[in-house]
């Protein structure tokens, strides 16, 4: 990993310290397990995973990577936390999931293998790196013309501060305190601009909400807090 890698070492350390708990569905990563079927449904709404070459950027312990592999995709997962990748590899051995994991910055992989993947997923990562626009650009370079790129992140406004930080971290305890920095959240307009600059077409935004009474997540048109974006790299003429 080069000295200029787009990485917040404190963020990587935070996830590395929690790596052993990635697959504890009652632990701090419980929300990721809960929303994973919803993330998968958004992906499958736009493409067939069976036989597709898919890159999962910021894969962590492999929750989404394994789910896409189970649908028949050939998945490569990358992350900058070696501890998380070790957990992902061990879990894949236990489950038989066919996922290839690498510890490499997405920008470096984009230089190495441009236009390689039918789809790139980058979930809950952009708000954790110093230069999210660089990640968006690298994802765009990695996907083939006509391919798909999926992002998920959090909107930056008063409501997201109330729900995603005060509510999720301090009141409901869904996430450990300090998980997120509200100043690093990303408005959809900002993400749309980065996509345009990377020659991606932003096709759809989908919101994700949590009901504290039923303790259920659901997809919605409300992108005020959590949201997912589907982008397309235009095909060659």
- Give the helix tally: 8
Which fold does the CATH topology refer to? Rossmann fold
Looking at the overall shape, the CATH architecture is: 3-Layer(aba) Sandwich
Using the alpha-carbon principal axes, give the shape. Answer: globular
Q: Write the H/E string, N to C.
A: HHEHEHEHEHEHHEEE
The class by helix and strand makeup works out as: alpha/beta
First-residue to last-residue Cα separation: 36 Å
Domain Methyltransferase type: 55-151
Catalytic activity: a 3-demethylubiquinol + S-adenosyl-L-methionine = a ubiquinol + S-adenosyl-L-homocysteine + H(+); a 3-(all-trans-polyprenyl)benzene-1,2-diol + S-adenosyl-L-methionine = a 2-methoxy-6-(all-trans-polyprenyl)phenol + S-adenosyl-L-homocysteine + H(+)
EC number: 2.1.1.222, 2.1.1.64
Family: Belongs to the methyltransferase superfamily. UbiG/COQ3 family.
Care to give the gist of this entry?
The chain has 237 residues and is α/β, with parallel strands linked by helices. Helix content is 38%, strand content 24%. The mean pLDDT is 88.
